[in-house]
Fold these 2 entries.
Entry 1:
Amino acid sequence: MKPSSTATGTIIGLTLVFLIGPFIVIILAALTAGNNLAFPPDGLSLKWFIKVFTVESFRISFFISMFLAVFGTLTALIVGVPAAYAIARYDIPGAGAIQLAVSSPLIVPGIIVGLALLRYLVIPTGFTIMAALFLAHAALILPYAVRVVTSSLQNLRVDVEEAALILGCSRLGSFFRVVFPNIRGGILAAFILGFVTSFNQVPVSLFLSGPGVRTLPIDMLAYMETTYDPSVAALACLLAIMSVGIVFLAERFLGFSRYV
Amino acid sequence: MFENKTTGLLLVLPAAVFASVLFLLPVGILLSEGFAGSEGGFSLGAYVEFFSSELNNTVFWRSLRLGLWVMLTSAVIGYAAAFSIVQLSPKSRGRVFALIILPLMISPVARTYAWLVILGRTGLVNQVIVGLGLSEEGLQLLFTETAVFIGLLQLFLPLMIIALISSMENMPRDVVPAARVLGANWFSVFFRVILPLTREGLVVGGTLVFAGSITAYITPAILGGSKVLMLETLLYQRVTVANDYAAASVIAMILVVMSIVTNLLLKRLAKPRNRRA
């Protein structure tokens, strides 16, 4: 005896309307030919999508967010991959405490980290906001990098490495010639996860912004407070398309969800 | 497993130092600031002062209340949705599942912004209300607790559905039909069969949703504004408007303690499942 498929269909339909509906509303609102944010749109045009590219602060903050996401993730991987290797392959003393320290960025709410870095790193030491933002984003991505790479290392058998070592390969050589090619997918998955996380991140960057230095989501929040036109809606659509596109491609070519 | 412990430590050291220096140290100093007396030494003055303010109390209890409401509502919708999705054929189940997790990939700013269009003074909901003649000018929906509630629910519902689906997939397939054949109505099927078997998923989803809601910034900032402050928007306001770092430190402590408790709970629950796997 199964529940009726009309009932289950209705429930799924309503849930999806609630979860996805707002995106459709915002896409249509951004396509308006009028000057106000409204639904249903006042005629259709792409003018607000074009306007997004002419707003200078959006351009600057887009590049800042891009920079943080790409280089923050790379830094997290450079620090995180050796740590993941050690966690997966060695019996390290105090492993629990180390894992806790590495995963702490997941536990401490971002807004507190941003405030703490501003008060105790930027102000007393004269660190630039940009440098603090960069370090904060890298640290934020670190737990994801370590977790994803650790799990793909755990799926790789130790025998192949031992075989390489017995056959005369050096430790470093065996890592780059045997281990690395096998965990490349995991590293790429960690990169994508880190990139999307950093790019969409708001709380950490909230206090870490100054004249001319703002991440894109923070800039959008600031723009929204002063201007009520559809350009933020258009930008929101573009960002949504970008994130979904990246994740879709990653799933298609990499089987992304295996790693996350 | 390799034996050389020194190599292992050296490999893990950069990450540990990076996280401790950048995260634990500054955050630790910030938290300790809340216990500093005005003439040095240890004092709980900041905490006493924080909770003696009516606004702070309102915000504190509002955050907890909204967190609970979002958690409960997402559990109710989550059970209905997850149970329906599990009934689908594997192919359409995959498709629906992809649509459920799709919003998680999208910037929360974009996700929340959509509600401005829907709930605004001339928004979709008010057009319907005015159109039906229920109100002349439309209702004030934005900058209310309801708006924040709806925004948070949409933001975190997918987490609950995912958690419930994964524990329902582990449920033996025949238990629900068996209970039905034996004469149980849907009410007792739920409370006596489904609920006990999916409790783990409920707690995992529930803690994620609750923790996410009380530590949210973007949703209350956009949909609540300064009228409906929550813990993080209050923290931001205390610092930027009043330079009140003592209050900021107290709020930070509340947020950190809640996060740690949630994480410990999750870890506890995740353990037996790993053992089985």
Note: Chain B has one domain: 35-96+143-276.
Entry 2:
Amino acid sequence: MALHLVVLIKVVPDGKEVFVDPVTFTLNRSMATNIINPADENALEAALQIKDKMDAKITVMTMAPPFAEPFLMECMSRGADEAVLISDRAVAGSDTYPTSLTVAAAIRKMGDVDIVFAGEKTSDSSTGHVGPGVAEFIGAELASYSRKVTYEDGYVIAERELENGVEEVRIPTPAVVTILTDSNDPRRATLRKKIDAMKKGIITWSLADINIPADWVGLRSSPTVVKKMLPFPRKDRKAEKIEKDKIPELIDNLVKAGVIKLEAE
Amino acid sequence: MADMKKAEPPKDPSQYKGIMVYLDSFDGSLTRAAHEMIGVGRKMADKVKEPCIGVVIGDRVASMVDDAGKYGCDEVYGFESPDLSMYRSRPFTDILSGMVFEKKPNILIVPGTKNGRDLAARTAVRVQSGLTADCMEIDVEPETDILIARRPDYGDSTMSEIRCEKHRPQMATSRPGTFEVPPYDDKRTFKKEIRKVDLKKEQLREEILSFKPKGGEDITVSKVLVSGGLGMGNAEGLKLIEQLAELMGGSYGVTRPVADLGWAPRDHQVGQTGKIVRPDLYIAAGISGKPQHIVGMMDSKTVIAVNKDPEAEITKYSDYVINGDLYEILPVFIEELKKRKQGKGRK
């Protein structure tokens, strides 16, 4: 039976073309160009690399308004077999708890999922909470911060890149893996796959389709709330101007103060 | 495994008391990030007059438990099993969530190392509460016992204050390097308890096949950092940065765009998506000072900015500002330092 891989993606604003609504404290994305979250592109590529080697079906999924459709089409044009859009007005304002819950409910509806791939974090809110949260809700094993993932006989082998080294772990499926940004080179879309994608179209699910009550999600069912926005903290320093010819003097002063040490300790 | 349902707040949040600190470790020692979090927990505990409760998980925890107490925890719980010598997502989540259910802490803070973030995210779902990641400021409001968690926001030009008013425990993580390590007090007294854990097979499905320690420098421990930004103009500029860093016995850093361009490895990236550093001396050469970068170096003791633009944002975070091209200014530093070093050698 074909392996079923699910790739979670998020459409995020590109760069800094975003402003924060001063009344609701939510991000206004209307001004920004949207992209697929960079780490999610790596997650899709990691799934595609497994599909290159064996019989596998890839479902790409996002929870977003319909504006995300072209990005799901892009993923299919790169090799994903189907695309699911969870779209429901009630999810607006959800923090990572209801988001993980909703995504997990959709994965459960699919029933036969072997591996869930997600980016290590998103470039807009960068919490990295949803991958582990989904693992927790579906009761799967988890390999977070992975840079290389292979599959063999019911097990996922993942290289987790930690602060002080690289750990190789083996976990049985069902598994969730979160993939590091820049960990591979995402392939390009092909015209043939693009045509196929257009024929297939996108599957859209509402909350009712995945049996999630509307009052379980959204701003009101999110444990965290953004209370206020504050200016970025400034630690004003004296910013003393030093002319080029006064650099020797500056160095002398820093040596005297012990900031620069001329001899190795 | 968490129940598939919405996050239910407790009926009476005031029953939740104390500041729980998860203490992440590596190779039998608490990480620097764990020590930082003890400091944060200690301060909040003093403010609300509630205990600071440390949780340590490992294969041999006795010395780490003592360490936690001497750095500032009032109570430390150690969980010990040969199967827990390295972090494993499921059993660690089981143990930490178990402690949350048992002790009912009002606040739970977790070091934002990769394993810590993995653990915090799962635990938040398991205990049905709210988690705020990458906090630069963590505090508690004594009147309400509410955690004030502030994190840089999108584009990092503002900070968001995030609260979790109804759910407990109120959770937060911070990136390593964000806070200072509190003082060690050998005479501190504290309550400790070490529990042997017997793990079931289904908790140990994750198998660790190998661990390869990463070589290379850890820029977060360098006393001197010389960093280059896009002002270098090309990858060659890094040589000058490295040369100066080496002369001062330090290491080099770069900004995110420089790492994005592949001019330098990610391990050397300073900032919100890189490392958070607090060296004695930070030289920012050709760095404009985007908040993304500032977050990573603003707590350096002395900052020197070298920039063509005298009004660059970085100057506001600098003690000394040298206006000019880094290709003219840095060689002066290099030459002067060489002179002084040779002078020393002759004596």
Note: Chain B is about 30% helix and 25% strand.
